[in-house]
Amino acid sequence: MADSRERIRGPSRDGREFLTSPRHVLRRLMLLSEGRQYREAAGVVGRLGPSVLRSVISELPIDLLLEALPHSVYLLESFYSRLNTVNPVPKPDVPTEAVMWQLVRLFANPHESGLRQRCSKLSQALGRFEPSLKVTLRERRKSLDNTVQGLGRHGLTADQNGQLICLHIALKSELQRHIEVYKQAVHKLEELSALTINQNPALSSHQRLLGISYADIQQRLIDNKTLLTILDKPALKQLPLLIENLTQRVQNDKEVLCAVGQIKRTDPQANFEKRPAAGLLMNFSRGCDVILNLMGPDDIIPPRGSVSEKGKVGTDGSSNSSFSDGYHSDDSATHNSEESDLVNSFKKLYTQSRTETLEALDHLPQLKQSHSLKEKILFSIIVLSFRSTHSLRERKVVEVRRTLCCILESSDEKTLSLDRAVRAHLYDTIDTFPLGDVERQVSNQVLSTLHEYPCLETCTPLVHYISVCVRLAWKMINQKVPYYLDNDFNLGNYEHY
């Protein structure tokens, strides 16, 4: 055993022959890894030249090192740090993304407190070697957060009278109403005069129609008006909204299953059957966020669509470049006059509109003693407004792609140009774009959560406050340098207050 250990630890002679032979280096690294002597293996990698390093890393079974994480973190860090130092051209084909997802998996599950410090240098080395990994992490984190939001959109919906009921009950009632109306319309069609229902094409020619008498025109108007009165009812216009709601729910659940499938491929050992889907998605979103933070800022090559700083609009309407919770701009460019107006509008919303609405809530007997709850309601409306308008903007882009038969996952220049045109149109119409559905969605989310406070439904200042929040959020997220809600922002629960 002692001889074997000497054979592992001691390079022959001065080590030069050993360090120039890829076969010998690979053999020694495998022996050290089998003995879990990763620090010593990292020291060997740190002295390799470019050609030997390329040969070794192409033959080394990285999968075994991934399975050994976090113990093998020193060896993996040494590999990527050495690659960054020697900068071989072209870059060797190494599984950087597999390493990244393994790190995300570690932080998505319960782990010891020192794991972040152990993995920080490896994360930084990965970010320097492959800057595009940050884009991948951001997109996955955003996708997971949006999917979690979609899980919460299966609550109650408003019927034709504004009452909150189950979507499927609303659909059943609406369909029954349509059936009754259509039966009446069919019955009326059977009773129409022969003048109105003219099956002879010869009698429908332009010359014949010009020869119709005043009395015939009067009878035709009565028939058509009666039929229109039956069919053109405001109550019948609820069905498209309910179908759109149902479509969105189906899409949300598809995205949940897709996201869980991606996590299954990343972490096959995770217990998916007994864990809540939202908790699983949020854990992996947190893992992505931890690795992003460990990789550090984009100080080498800014990835496509990313920025190095974020401009924050705080709850007091002030603007700065902090990375803390709040509303941020995607760019650190100097605020122009329009952005300054938005910041001032947000400040006015929080200091004036919010205060006026808070006073109105103070007059509601059920909320008179619930000071923390009232503050929570008003701030939650701001948060929900940003989330709902952001979802609407992305949905409109996807709808245009579907309408024009574009591939939804396409990233070619023509499709991206179409997306930019849609966003430009939304920017040009931020003051007039109809947002009634979003206002109702935000209102329903608040009212369904606080169903024990029915007085909120009749609070006119609260309805106006929701309208102002939604419109301002729509303006801010549709800027050329859009503002958005931090993904790691935690809204909390009403029950805590």
Brief characterization of the structure:
The protein is mostly helical. It contains 20 helices and 6 strands.
What can you see in these coordinates?
The protein is mainly alpha-helical and 497 residues long. The protein is built from 20 helices and 6 strands. A hairpin with a 5-residue loop joins strand 1 and strand 2 (164-165). The longest helix is centred in the last third of the chain and has 33 residues, at 371-403. It has helices spanning 2-9, 16-19, 22-34, 38-45, 50-59, 62-67, 73-86, 96-108, 115-129, 132-151, 167-191, 206-210, 214-231, 238-266, 277-295, 337-362, 371-403, 413-428, 436-449, 460-477, and strands at 157-158, 164-165, 311-313, 319-320, 327-329, 483-485. It has a 4-stranded antiparallel β-sheet with strand order 4-3-5-6. It has a two-stranded antiparallel ribbon with strand order 1-2. 63% of the residues lie in helices and 3% in strands.
Task: Report strand order across the widest sheet.
Answer: 4-3-5-6
Topology order in helix (H) and strand (E) letters: HHHHHHHHHHEEHHHHHEEEHHHHHE
Strand content: under 5%
The chain-level structural class is mainly alpha
Looking at the structure, what is the overall shape? elongated
N- to C-terminal distance: 64 Å
Q: Helical region count?
A: 20
The strand count comes to 6
Radius of gyration from the CA trace? 31 Å
- What's the average pLDDT? 76
- Major sheet details: 4 strands, antiparallel
Residue ranges: pLDDT <50 for 5 or more in a row?
Answer: 1-17, 299-335, 487-497
Helix content: 55-70%
